[in-house]
């Protein structure tokens, strides 16, 4: 029996890892934001804009650091993997220009913050079932 090269095994694990049909971008139902374009969302999550298109201050929140949906979100949003996103933020932070979205410790903390703060925005691996949240953009599976 032949053994697979470790690199091939790692690649197979990456390819067969979690994947979602869609990623859902959500806000509180109290938020004035009803919908966003992918470009507007990029501007908010990459700190090119600190406001929603209507002018209200935006507070982007990240999933916990080890969350698989975090990688999927940034790839679908920007076409970049987490190492590239982390490098992007390192450059901006070092230059004193901006800080990355605040990662929440748990998904439950993220959901609570989203429901309480009408100016926060984040993303989920599934359509929200919890009351108090509204989908403003759906990043579809390519």
TrEMBL record:
Key words, A-Z: Signal
Superkingdom of the organism of origin: Bacteria
Signal peptide location: 1-21
Keyword Signal: yes
Protein name, UniProt field: Phosphate ABC transporter substrate-binding protein
UniProt source species: Roseateles rivi
């Amino acid at each position: 029996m032949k053994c697979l090269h470790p690199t091939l095994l790692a690649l197979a694990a990456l390819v067969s890892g979690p994947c979602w049909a869609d990623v859902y971008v959500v806000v509180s139902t109290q938020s004035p934001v009803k919908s966003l374009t992918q470009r507007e969302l990029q501007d908010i999550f990459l700190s090119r804009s600190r406001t929603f298109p209507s002018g209200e201050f935006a507070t982007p929140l990240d999933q916990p650091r080890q969350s698989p949906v975090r990688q999927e979100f940034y790839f679908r949003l920007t076409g970049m993997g987490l190492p590239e996103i982390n490098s992007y933020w390192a450059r901006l932070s070092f230059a004193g220009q901006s800080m990355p979205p605040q990662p929440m410790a748990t998904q439950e903390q993220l959901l609570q913050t989203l429901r309480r703060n009408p100016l926060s925005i984040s993303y989920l691996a599934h359509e929200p079932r919890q009351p108090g949240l509204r989908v403003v953009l759906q990043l579809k599976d390519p």
